[in-house]
Design brief:
It is a single chain. With 275 residues, the chain is an all-alpha fold. It has a two-stranded antiparallel sheet with strand order 1-2. Helix 1 crosses helix 12. The radius of gyration is 18 Å and the shape is globular. It starts with 9 loop residues before the first helix and ends in a 5-residue tail after the last helix.
Length: 275
């Protein structure tokens, strides 16, 4: 059975954006955990935790994020600055989310704590790592991860991937989408970072769309595929290439008559793999 194709156009994508990019379609999605934080310094910590755990079944994702944030109290930012590495390990000693353990969470928080103490916020650190010649956020993302690792005393494991190893870094790019973009769904806050430099948060659903729409010929969901698709999305939205990301993910959850072919085609037939 040959793979069907889909035709994307700016008018179709805009129609999907206006239809689905609304708060009523957010649940269930990890981004909903960010809306309770009015202070940017709290929201960026909550967003990092939420994005780091955004893999697996969505209801388990929401449960796990809720557990971590609950133990951080009303201010994740203040919790990070005041708690010690030993307290991180103690507070999350019983935490498990698929491959993530409490030790991984503690290691991640230790690195984020050190970075916050030095730079003030994650946003300040990230922005300081952006060079004018950078065409996208990938170099700055690599610099941010390096700085976090420099301050880690534990082991964050897979919760802190290194972009230079070639993976699509879907969770890191999802975090950046939440923090940089601002509309009815994405809360934003990092105004110093241009949305034009964002990279598509590539998962199996988005890669399938990219393959069927001729945006990438790659079978592997790696950073090269993510960059290829980002460049194609710039043809529709040059200053905001991830503008349609949330709406297109709703297609995978809710289905849409414009995408019957996508609904009927599953990941096994698409022969998709991720590094």
């Amino acid at each position: 059975m040959s793979r069907p194709s889909i035709q994307l156009s700016r008018s179709l994508l805009e129609s999907l954006y206006q239809k689905y990019n609304r708060l009523c379609f957010v649940h269930p999605d990890p981004i909903e955990k960010l809306y309770t934080y009015d202070r940017l310094e709290d929201r960026e910590i909550a967003a990092w935790i939420a994005a780091s755990l955004a893999y697996g079944r969505v209801h388990q994702i929401l449960k796990s994020i809720g557990i971590v944030l609950h133990l951080m109290g009303d201010s994740p930012y203040q919790y990070l600055r005041e708690a010690t590495a030993g307290e991180f390990r103690h507070d999350y000693s019983h935490f498990v989310h698929r491959f993530a353990t409490g030790a991984h969470i503690a290691g991640l928080m230790d690195g984020l704590k050190g970075l916050n103490l030095e730079y003030g916020t994650l946003g300040e650190c990230f922005h300081s790592g952006i060079a004018k010649q950078d065409t996208n956020v990938l170099p700055a993302l690599g610099r941010l991860i390096d700085r976090i690792y420099d301050r880690v005393s534990g082991d964050p494991g897979h919760l802190l991937p290194r972009p230079e190893r070639g993976s699509a870094c879907k969770r890191l790019n999802l975090f950046l989408r939440w923090m940089v973009r601002q509309d009815r769904v994405d809360p934003g806050g990092w105004e110093a970072v241009s949305a034009a430099k964002l990279i598509v948060p590539l998962d199996t659903h988005m890669l399938l769309i990219g393959q069927m729409a001729g945006m990438t010929s790659r079978r592997q969901g790696d950073m090269r595929a993510a960059l290829e698709m980002t460049e194609k999305f710039k043809m529709f939205s040059p200053n905001d290439p991830v503008r349609y990301d949330f709406a297109l993910t709703r297609i995978g959850i809710l289905g849409d008559p414009e995408f019957n072919e996508l609904r009927d085609w599953n990941e096994e037939k698409a022969e998709i793999s991720f590094p």
